[in-house]
């Protein structure tokens, strides 16, 4: 069994309070692109859109829910995400975040340091 990837899940409970928890994404070693050697791969998941985001060094997003369920992949820079239960999480290049707080109080994000933050946002279709 391969080492899992750690990611931050941000979600809202039934009362609208937002929370954050670190979870593991399971990986398995597979021949993904033969003849290249096997590598660690997650299970496939559907995606609906991909958007690149660039946040200025002084950017701060006040309390807001995420506009859609989405994965954020931190490609550059550092940020802090705070949820309404008071939890604060530091994110850096290589961090993975699953935003599911589409309702409720949401979260706030603050860029840390003098560098821009660049993320890839991959929206996930939500079954109806």
Structure description:
By secondary structure, the protein is mostly beta strands. About 0% of the residues lie in helices and about 55% in strands. It has strands spanning about 5-10, 20-25, 30, 40, 50-55, 60-65, 70-75, 80-85, 90, 95-100, 105-110, 115-125. A 6-stranded mixed sheet has the order 2-1-10-7-12-5, with no helix packed on it. The chain has a 4-stranded antiparallel sheet with strand order 6-11-8-9, with no helix packed on it. Strand 1 (about 5-10) and strand 2 (about 20-25) form a beta hairpin. The radius of gyration is 16 Å and the shape is globular. The N and C termini lie far apart (about 35 Å). About 15% of the residues are buried. The mean pLDDT is about 95.
Write the layout of secondary structure elements.
Layout: E1 5-12, E2 18-25, E3 28-30, E4 39-41, E5 49-55, E6 60-64, E7 70-76, E8 78-83, E9 88-91, E10 96-99, E11 107-112, E12 117-123
Parallel strand pairs: 1-10
Antiparallel strand pairs: 1-2, 3-4, 5-12, 6-11, 7-10, 7-12, 8-9, 8-11
Short description:
It contains no helices and twelve strands. With 128 residues, the chain is mainly beta.
Which structural class do the helices and strands define?
A: mainly beta
The number of strands is: 12
Shape: globular
Gyration radius, in Å: 16 Å
Straight-line N-to-C gap: 34 Å
Low-confidence stretches: none
- Percent of residues in beta strands? over 45%
Major β-sheet, in short? 6 strands, mixed
Query: Helix content range of the residues, please?
Result: under 10%
Number of helices: 0
Mean pLDDT rating: 96
Query: How are the strands of the biggest sheet laid out side by side?
Result: 2-1-10-7-12-5
SSE string: EEEEEEEEEEEE
């Amino acid at each position: 069994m391969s080492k899992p990837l750690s990611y931050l899940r941000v979600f809202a409970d039934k009362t609208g309070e937002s929370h954050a928890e670190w979870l593991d994404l399971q990986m398995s070693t597979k021949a993904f692109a033969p003849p290249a050697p096997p590598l660690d791969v997650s299970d496939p998941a559907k995606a609906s859109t991909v958007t690149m985001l660039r946040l200025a060094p002084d950017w701060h997003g006040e309390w807001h829910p995420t506009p859609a369920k989405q994965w954020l992949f931190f490609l550059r820079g550092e940020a802090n995400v705070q949820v309404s239960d008071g939890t604060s999480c530091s994110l850096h290049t290589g961090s993975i975040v699953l935003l599911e707080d589409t309702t409720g109080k949401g979260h706030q994000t603050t860029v840390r340091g003098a560098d821009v933050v660049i993320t890839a946002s991959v929206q996930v279709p939500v079954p109806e």
